[in-house]
Every structure is written in structure tokens, then in C-alpha cells.
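Input.
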Amino acid sequence: MDTILLMGYPNVGKSVIFNALTGAYVVVSNYPGTTVAVDRGKTEISGKKVEIIDTPGMYSLLPITEEERVARDILLNENPSLIINVLDAKNIDRMLHLTLQLIETGLPTIAVLNMIDEAEEEGMQFDFMALEEALGIPVIPTAATKGEGLKELDKAITTTLNRGLAPGRKVRYSKEIEEAAIKIEDLLEGDYPISKRSIALFLLQGESTIEAMVSEKNKKVFTKAKEIAEEVRDSYARPLDYVVANSRQNQIDKLAERAVRAEGERPLDLKEKISRAMIRPSTGIPILISVIIGLYLLVGVFGAGELVDFIEGTLFEGHINPRVDGFLEENVPWDPVRGIIGGEFGIVTLGLRYAVAIIFPIVGIFFLAFSILEDTGYLPRLSLLIDRVFKKIGLSGRAVIPMTLGLGCDTMGTLVTRTLETKKERILATLLLALAIPCSAQLGVIFGILSRSVLALFTWAMVIFVVMLFIGWLGSTLIPGGKPQFFMELPPLRVPKLSNVLVKTYTRMIWYFKEVLPLFVIASVLLWLGDITGVFVHLVNWLAPLMGGLGLPGSAAPVFIYGFFRRDYGAAGLYDISGTLTMAQLTVAAVTLTLFIPCIAQVMMMYKERGKKVTLGIIAFIFPFAFFVGFLLNIVLSALGVLV
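Output.
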């Protein structure tokens, strides 16, 4: 079976083309040895069975991030019959760098010039024949979201798989680099997954994976090749990867001059004006506040208010729980058995009620809102806007991705910190996710609980925000490491397609429900065991003095115990007792619970990603710090006499 790789920059429409080619026959799994998800699909093209792999977005075959490493490793390990390089037509001059690198691999390559409709709307015109002649590979214009150009792509794939393709045109480098590349090519023995010229260029630039590959084949050859590479590097004042990239850019400039024309500078359309407004602080911050208010109304008021009130109050409290308890009372004579199913800690009356009635509707509404924001193209613009703030706490705008994912699930966000470039960034992001980023269910429940008072919600948000900035700044000062760099391609703003939003929301809800339901059942069983053995009572009594310091009654102690099992479990517990607390007590409890020790799943992920020393250090800091902040907030609110 032939293998086809989809490769290109992030946000160029690879996934749309992948879905169009594969349909529903898709398998999503982590690439071996990594936490990066890769989509694989099998399909038939002109009667020929093929496997298509949608590789993670990448800017270069010289990887920096984990996604780029995975994409490059797929290229080296999967023995592809064809590469489909997807480019954003509007930014072709930047994206051709990767195209030229792919051509140098010697593997059959097709360039797909996607979003051609948007490029033409901006006044760009393309001479596709000139592009094909200059690159030496087929160039297929597409507007994938509209289905335009996909039939032509099918034909090009069929032709290439049946007949093969001659290698594309070479980039010519300086005399010193060309001579060194030829010398290294002559040294290389045996077969490689890509062309020997490409291997030689990687060795000249000191790419570690290729160095290890060559060294493993023949240590002596690698030693000689390394000597040649070091000699060439010493002859240039700048790093060789810069020199090589500059040579490619010179060829790209000539190509663009010949094959791409623009109608001069066009007036900004409405989408571009909105896009720029989202990035500029003076307008971007009010837009961000508006988005947050929209989330508050949708998730906090409607999701955590109307939906939860109906499902939890009307269905569970009004019908399901009383009937379950009544049935157990009449038919089950053993108290322990009745306690594990119904009662205070029962699987149905507590575990299922929390998961189905409180968490599931809130998460569903949050995922719906998140999918809308994702499909509009707002999140990359938020990254650029926040980059200025994040730089002050040792992070780049790229960190907004794990942070935003953390709003869905902090365990997932911790996993995605792998994509950050430096160890310092990864530790800082892990700390802030554990401390100050509430998961979707926790966030939604807190919105719902505090929605009765704008001041309470504002107080909670400001305390968490200030804590995040302060701890981030402190961490960036104490943790060694340089300042992070950041760049990102901006996809165009779009009106979300309803079907895409609903499919994404449905998929995420099913995934979350499959993950959360078993854990809530397990947590209920553990709490039941703790109750019948007396361990739970001892934990509650141990936490009682801390509750007093926060100005909370002893009945709030179980909430923090629940929170250790899962953040959303603790949030649901707080929702359960919210009617017995004042607004000031709810605000203090919400702040402390948000800052409290992360759930077991997140602790395990921290241990896996950052190691024992960092994980224990974060937990040892967070536990007392959370109660210290709650203690101070209780004093301030009591002194001011607000939120009573």
C-alpha cells in the first residue's frame, strides 16, 4: 500500500484536504514515543489503495518543536510514496522554504496552493505553469473548504503514484556549500530514506537526528563528513542554516517575481480590519473582555445555570435520586451496599449526578464555545495579543495553546507543554496550569456559582489573574534560561461552519464523557470506602481548622477532598453546598479551590513530563500557597464588609 504524507505550515488547510481525501476512515493516535497526535486514513484513489497521514504543522525540516520533530520523523520513517505539500497561497513567499526542502529530499512531491480564492480576493494572480516550471513539480490550486481543485488533486496523485515524478529543481548554494555537499554525498554509503544531497545539507547544518542516522550506518564516514561540515561552518560568520535559508530565499524571490503578481496595495477589507483590531492592545483587550463576557453568559449563565438546574435539580434531585434511595431502602437490607449505590457517596446519587447533571452540560457548552472560537481563527490572534504579557512571565505567545487547552482539561494542557521550546517555558507553563488555570468544568461551575454577583466573579478573576502574573514573573526570575522567541502564521478570519463546530463539539464531549465517567465512579467508591472506614471523617477533621482560617464552615472540607480526585469533582461539590454559603464565602472557596493541588490525573502527567523533583516541588508550593491566598482574601473581604 502506498503512503502519502500531507505536510505544510500550521493553519494552511491540511486537515480539510485530509478529510476530503479520506472521508470517515480515520484513526487518531499518538506517534510512538511522543504525545503528539497523528491522523491516519485509508482510502482508494482511482482504484488504488493508499494510506494518508496528516502530519503536524511544521515550518522547516530543521525541527524546533515536538510537532516539527514528529513531522520530520514521519518523513524519515514512513517510506512515503508521495508528499503533498499544502501551502497558503496568500503567504506563498514564506511557505516555499519548506517546499524547497521537501523537493531536496528527492521524494515525489506535489504542491497544493490552497486558499487560492482568498488570495485572489486580495488581488494576487498566479502563473501556475511558471511555478511548476520553476519548482519542477506539479502545482495544484485549491479552495479546499469549497471543494474546488480536489478533483485535479486526485488526478495528480494518481498520475504520480502510477508513473512517478522526476526530482524537482535543485536550489543552488554558494560554491563552498555545493563543493562540501558533493564531497559528503560521495562519502555516503548504502540507502537513506531521503536523497543523499538532502542528507549532506542536513549534516552541514548540524541536524542531530541525521547525524545519528549517518553515524549508526558508518562511524568513519560520519567522522569525515563532520570534519567537512565544521570546516565549511568555520568559513562563514553566520550560522550555516541562516546562509542556506538565505540562498533559498533568493531563489524564492526570483520565483515570486516571475510567477506571482499583485494588483498593488488594496484597501483593507472588514475581515482584515477586525483581524488587526484583535492583535492591537488598544482594541484587542476590549475584544478579549467581550469574548470572556460571552463565555460567561453562555457557559456560566446558560450552561451552569439553566441546564444544570434542570438536569441536576429537576431530574436527579426530583426524580432519580429519591427513587434510587427508595428502591435500595425497600429491597437492599445491607447498609454498605446501599451506601455504594445511593446515599451521600453513592455511584448513582453522587458520581453519576456530578458527571451527568453538573459536569457534562457545562463541558458541552464550553466545548461548543471553544469550537466556535477555534474555527473563527481567533485563538492565533489571541496568542499574538497575549505574547506581550506572557514575555514578562518568561513565556511566549505559543504558551497560550497549552493554557487554552488547560481550560478544557489541565491534564491535556500539561501534556501539550511539550510543544514549548525551552525547559524553562515547560516548567513555568506546568506550574501555572497546576496553580491558576481552572479546567472547563471547574470554570463553568465557578461561573455558575458566582454569576449572582458581578463583583464576586470579578474578584475571583482578578485574584487568579494577579496570582498567575506574580507567580509567572517570580518563576521567570528564579528559573534559569533565556527569553523565548515566538512567531506564528495567522490563518484568515472565517465565519465558523456549523457542521464543523457540531462535529468537533460532539467528538470532544464523547471523549470527555468516556474519560470522566469511570473516574467519577472510582472517586465515589473511594469516598464510600473512606466513609465506612472512618478515613474520610479524619480527613475532614484535619481540614476543619484550615476551613476556619478561610472563613468557611466544616462542611466545605469535603469539597477540597473531592477536588484532589478531580478538579471538576471538587467544583461540583462546591456547587452542591453553594446554597449554604454567603457570596464572600463562595468567592474565597472558589479562589482557594482554583489554586488548590491539581487532581490526581494532572499530578501523574506532571510526574511523567517534568519528573519527580519538579512535580513534588510544585505540589509543596501550591498547597500552602492556595490556603495563604484564601486566608488573605477572607481577611480583606471581611474588613471591607462586601459580598455578605
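The chain has a mean pLDDT of 81.
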